[in-house]
Structures are given as structure tokens and as C-alpha cells.
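Quick one: structure for this chain?
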Amino acid sequence: MNLLKNLADTEKTPFYLFDLGRLHERIHFLKSRLPENVKLCYAVKANPFIAHALSTDVAKLEICSPGELEICRSLNLPWEKFVISGVYKDRELMTALICQNQSPGLFTAESVSQLTLLAEAAAAAKKKISVLLRLTSGGQFGMDGMHIENIVANRQKYPWISFEGIEYFSGTQKTSLKKMQRELNEADAFLEKLEKNCGFTAGVLEFGPGFPAAYFEGDSFDEDSYLNSFSEMLQAMKYQGPVTLELGRSIAAACGTYVTQIVDTKTNKGENYAIVDGGIHQLVYYGQSMAMKQPKMQFIKTSPSDQAVNHLPKQLWNICGSLCTINDILVKQLPLAQPCPGDLLVFENAGAYCMTEGIALFLSRDLPKIILLDEQQTPVVVREHTEINALNTPNIRR
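Got it. Here's what it folds into:
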């Protein structure tokens, strides 16, 4: 709490704080509860600002866009860990990646035409590349099993492709172990079918389990038991080869906090409102349900004479952001004791997606500062407050 107060004194709010010590502890926790043949792949889209800190802790880094690729490239992250994913792959970029001296470790193929694109680029460069075939779970992602089976059965047609295995992902925030079991059964049965019908043994199964993060009060669950049951499911599969778990939210969420300051208070028609300098454009939890549930958070009084406030009765307050829209409500009916301008609201578990998934360009407000807290608890600014009004300004030549 003292650290957050001190940062609020020296740094303009709102800001994000990502605790790297907590991040590494989270990785250690996950690895300690999973089978030995399981490795982790970090989905960079969850939080690109911690990718550098994670690069030595995970086996793979999933990259879904040219922008994410440039981020990882600029951070000098190891190319052999890159998994070039995504439903749209630009031919020019894929060709350039394959032709360069150091190519990514893996490419995913989400359609027959995407595989053709990769195969043609590899053949032109006379360079063998490694590919995962993505099995669809429905929707626009991946391919039907029949297409993958046909590709694998005719894999001699792709001499410059090394088919490494199968990728399978169906969603996020999955608390149901029964659903997890069904998905693992489906992946297991498909891998067995490929081996039986096509003589193909997958070198790896990259699986997206969608482990849940507890964002709201009352969202807690027994994670130890959950991971133990999941590990037992993996060990019971007929497929006993290497498994890579693609995780984003489950790795990153707990390391982050979002700090915003109360800038105004009012009572309108019997309802109390506290206005903060942040808002829904900078803080997005899964399901966009922040106003319907209470996030895990702290209320920090900033005045030295506020000790007496602890003895005051709490009232219900609606916490609203700085956007000029009625939708900018962070929390409804939050019990607080005399909130005042300058007081801080600290939203926990904000390490995944919050800083990238919001409507950041709306009303042209600045992007918040991003601070990493290193292993010695030293704050390091990795992005200053960034003006974005230029992005919304038309270039009109008179």
C-alpha cells in the first residue's frame, strides 16, 4: 500500500503496475502442478509488456499479428520460441520471415489455403519450416478434422513442411472440468485417428486449456484441486507425447494492478458518484461485466488525517470513469467510507488484456503509464503517458 501511495505521489494516474516477482512466482506455481512432459507457451496478446520478462520462463511465445512480431523482434526475444499464429497471415510477411536467416520456430496453419501459402514460401526459399495444424473447435479458427486428415495423409506433397503436431484451443475462463475432459478426449481421439489412418504420430499437442482467472469477489475456486484434476486428465490420455499449454490470462492476470484516482464526487437524486481519471477504455475484465460485479480491489485514502475515516459508516458509491458516456461505470454500489478527490482505487488482477483490449482511442485521452516492478521491488517505467490525440487528428491539407 505504501508503494502505491508513493507511486501515486510521483507518477500521474492512472497507471498500470506489473509485478515481475509475482509473475515469476505464478509461472513456478503452474509448472509445479503440471506433469513433466508439459511446457508452457505464453500468448503475447495477453500482455506484451511482460513478454521480455517471461521469455526465459516459457518454451514458446505465441504471436498473432505483425505488431506483436515487431514487439518481440525489438525486444530481441529468441526466434526459436516464436509461434507465428493467427487466422490471417500476410503472404509478403510470411515469405520474408521464411527467407530470413533466423526463422520462427513454428508456424500454425489455420486453413488449407494458409498451409499452401506457407508451403509455397518455403519451397521458393528452399527452406524447411515446422508447422502445427490447428484443429477447429468451432467458429472461424482452425480446420475441420477431415481437412487435416487429408493433409497428413498426403504430407509427401509438402516436402518443405515438417508437420510437428496439432493445435487445439476452444476458449477461455473454463471452470468446468467436465468440459475440459470432453475437449481433451476429442483431441486425443483425433490424434489416435491420425496415427491409425495416416501413420502420423504427432510430435506435440499444443492445447489451449483456457484456465480461469478470478476477477470478481466470490469468483474464487480451488485452483490446486483444479490443476491436479487437469494433470490427471493429461496423464490418462492415450497420447503421451509432449504437450504445450498455450496460456495468456492464467499467466499474466495476477501480476497486474491498475491504479486510478478519484477526481470528483457528487450525489445526484440520492445516488453517490465518484469520478475517476481512468475508465472502461483502460480497464477491461473478461466478459465486460465490471459494473455488474465487484472486482477485487483496494481503496486507499491519501490524506494523512484519514485514520478517523475508518470509523465512519460506509455508503454505497457508483465508480464512474472519465469518458463522456453513460457506459463508463467501473463498479456499482461499492461500499466506501467518505471517498474524496485524491483517494486511490486499485484494481487487482489487471495484468492480462486490460491495457490492450479497451476502447483506447475513444475521446482521445492519453494512454496510461506502464510500470514494471522488478525482482528488487524497484519500479521501472517502460511506457510514459502517451498522447493519442494525433491518431484522431485528420491530416487536412489546406
